[in-house]
Amino acid sequence: MLRAIWLTVQNEARLLVKDPIVLFMLLFAPVVIITVAGYSLGSLYGGAANSFRLPVINLDHGKLADGIIQALRQERAVTLEMLDDPGEARRLVSQRDRTPIAMVIPAGTSTAVAAGRQPRLILFVDPVRRVEVNALELRIDELCRRVTDQARATAQVRIEASGKDLREKIKRLSAEIASEQSEIRSQIARTQTALEISIRTQIAAAIKQVSDATEATIKTRERQAWADVQQQLSQRQAILLKIQNYLTQLQSSHRAFEDWLAKLKTMAGSHASDIPPPPSFPRPISETELAELAKPVTAPKLDPTLPATASVAAFSIKIPKGPELRDGNLIGDLEPFQAPQALTLPGDLGFVEQPAVVGEAVTVNAFDQYVPGFGVTFLLIGMMLGIALTLFDERDWGTLKRLQVSGAPLTGLLLGKLFARFIVGVVQMVLLFAVGWALFGITLGRNPIALIIPTVGISFAAAALGLVVASISRAHDSVMPLGVTISMAMAAIGGCWWPLDFEPGWMRELARWMPTTWTMQAFNDLMIRSQPPSAALWPFAATVGIGMIFLGAGLIRFVSLDD
Amino acid sequence: MSPAEAPILEAIEISKSYGTRLALDNVSLALRPGEIAGLLGPNGAGKTTTLSILATLLRPDSGRILINGKPPKTNGHGLGRMLGLVPQSLALYPTLSAAQNVWHFARMQGLSRDDGTECCKRVLEEVGLSVRADDPMDAFSGGMKRLLNLACGIVHRPPVLLLDEPTVGVDLQSREQILMRIRRYADAGAAIIYSTHYMEEAERICDRVLLIDRGKLIAEGNLEKVISLGGGRPRIELTYRGQLPKGRFGSLAGVREIGAAGIEGKATLEMNSLAQVAEVLYGLRGLDVNVIDFNLHSPNLSDAFIALTGHTLRDQVL
């Protein structure tokens, strides 16, 4: 078996070398188609591969119009043609194959923009050439935005310069005001101090005058009151002396009664107990106390000094302050005016594309899609030629039967042919990537070697598919119609010609069963999304799985037909 | 050739049907080393089916094949060395050179690299193509292609060679070359089955004839035996002047008028033996027949073929 496989591989290599048509199909044709597709459909990916003639009628002749025209002149994809007559521009657009679009810059556009209005450019378009029109409109829209942004940026610079100048002036004024405020504050402070001293002096003098008068009056009145008290006390002292004498006599009478009573009791003898007790006398005031009454009244001694009064200096004279002067920081007051929203033009809401993966490119080289896409397409077609068609050739030539007579197992011959074409497929894809890199600058991803993973997968699946087509085709002539139909359908549905997202949902579901889908996913991941090689492993497994189904079905069917 | 030798290739009671059509019906044959067996039969008789079964390309519905006394499967990888097939159509790679074609089949048929190189060189010399060894096959004339086709079948010197109309469409010189090579190859000890529609080729190189029709082996044996089975007699074809009445030749003894009677100036007379020729010509003179020309025809394989298989067009039947 292995010998048959190896010898078949060698023979396939010899046959391939001798077949310039197949070599053409494998290499030259894909490069031609890739070139055409890449340059024709590059705008689908945001590129500008095409070159367009663009008539422009400048009725404005302002700065903005000049800016737009200058920008258009720098566009590689645009060949500018300056006209004077809008009618001529209309004619160019309406005549087939002349130009898809013409642009008129109306008079007053620059002035209107400068005045903050929103003037509009006029585009004459050919609706049939909608794809080109869309691509050009995108470019013009971007240019307009760029020019407008430039104008806005210039205005913004001017505003900022004015603002800066204004701030400088305010700052200067603010400093001057602050200085004036400081001087005023000093003057007020000095005035307050002088006023306070004056008031304090005046108050002290007034207090002293009042105090002296009051002291003299008090002293006079004190003397008069004391003389009057002395007189009244002398009268009352004489009466008290008489009372003192009476009380002294009363005390003598009490003692005499006591003696009389004692004598009486003694005389009463046994009847002394029948004598009722005499009424008691109140206890007499002591002699000492009575002596006190007799003492002369001493006039109270008044402190002739006036109570100490607070010194004038201790007075705190509060002079009500006038309204506080504000600080002279005008810059602080004007800060709100310095805020960007106050000093900048209203912004233009737009977007910036960011890669979802670090290192991934935002813009896509259309050839990053078309080189692998059409490479896979021609790989499939190559397998139809190289396997399905040559198997029929070998049947027709009789070589297959002759080889079987040699004892080589049919399975070995088929596997040998498949393996040879598998190698050819891998080499074909590698060469296409090399050409794509050299001619079209395609991205080879983080690790170009990793591209071999999906390449191997699709080469295997395509080779197995070639066997399936050979086994289900009824005749030599039906191989190409059937094989090419299957190849084209797989390529188209699998996203080889356009992004898979263009397809409706049911078609995308169907695409999951196509090896082309998984292969393109892997190529896109590795090349455009800059994913690591591991990202290609699952698509590779899916591709090989589908290829194994093809291989099994093809072998069973082909061998059974031979029986 | 030694007839006593054991057969190297045997088909024992093989039958094969395609759907409801019986292509081979209980056919048995045996082939010995050094023997060329002509496989003859009209279109659709079963020749290609027989060859395909012998070449192990087809499995018979019943019966068996023995190569060297053993079933083909037991020969394993050596089967390629035992068998050589030269198919009717050119089983070659058109874009490859003669040397590359021969080399590929040599290697596929089990030769080592060194043996393959040597055998390629030798066989290309044998068939006279060594000077064009590096030219692509599709640049060859029809005869050279046939020679190359033969070379690819014998490059590994198989002891059993199956030839399916190897001289179709070639010029006389190429045919002579091919027939000479085949004869030499058989003389070297190979057993050959030679399928052809050209009866004279079979007569020239075949030791034995296998006549097959409608899937059955209807005649087998050496040339004389098969010709005799056809029951043919010598004939004399006459061209004469004037017109003769019908039945004019009836008076000639031992002669019977056959063929296209009534054609002006032409007649075919069947004789019992060639020895009657002088007698017949003398008798015609006596009958006032002015003979301008005559041809003698001995019974041959074609006669036997027609006699045994009939005149019906088989392609129309099929």
Write up what this structure looks like.
The complex is a heterodimer of chains A (563) and B (318). By secondary structure, chain A is mostly helical. Chain A is 67% helix and 4% strand. Among the domains of chain A are: 2-44 and 363-562, no CATH class; 47-148, 3-Layer(aba) Sandwich (abc type-2 transporter like fold), CATH 3.40.1710.10. Chain A is built from 18 helices and 4 strands. In chain A, helix 11 runs antiparallel to helix 15. Chain B is of the alpha/beta class and 318 residues long. Chain B is 34% helix and 25% strand. Chain B has helices at residues 47-54, 72-75, 79-82, 98-108, 113-126, 142-154, 172-187, 199-205, 223-230, 277-286, 301-309, 314-317; strands spanning 9-18, 21-31, 36-40, 62-67, 83-86, 160-164, 191-195, 208-213, 216-221, 235-240, 255-258, 266-271, 291-297. In chain B, the strands form 3 sheets. A 6-stranded mixed sheet of chain B has the order 5-6-7-3-8-9, sandwiched between helices. The mean pLDDT of chain B is 82. The interface between A and B is medium-sized, with 21 and 35 residues.
Question: Could you write a compact summary of the structure shown?
Answer:
The complex is a heterodimer of chains A (563) and B (318). In chain A, 67% of the residues lie in helices and 4% in strands.
Q: In total, how many beta strands of chain B? A: 13
Which structural class do the helices and strands of chain B define? Answer: alpha/beta
Average predicted local confidence, pLDDT of chain B: 82
Radius of gyration of chain A: 63 Å
With strands numbered from the N-terminus, the spatial order across the biggest sheet of chain B is 5-6-7-3-8-9
The secondary structure category of chain A is: mainly alpha
Count of DSSP H/I helices of chain A: 18
Report helical residue fraction of chain B: 25-40%
CATH class of the largest domain in chain B reads Alpha Beta
Rg of chain B (CA only): 24 Å
Count of alpha and pi helical runs of chain B: 12
Strand order of the largest sheet of chain A: 2-1-3-4
CATH architecture of the largest domain in chain B: 3-Layer(aba) Sandwich
The largest sheet of chain A, given as strand count, sense and whether it forms a barrel, is: 4 strands, mixed
CATH fold assignment of the largest domain in chain B: Rossmann fold
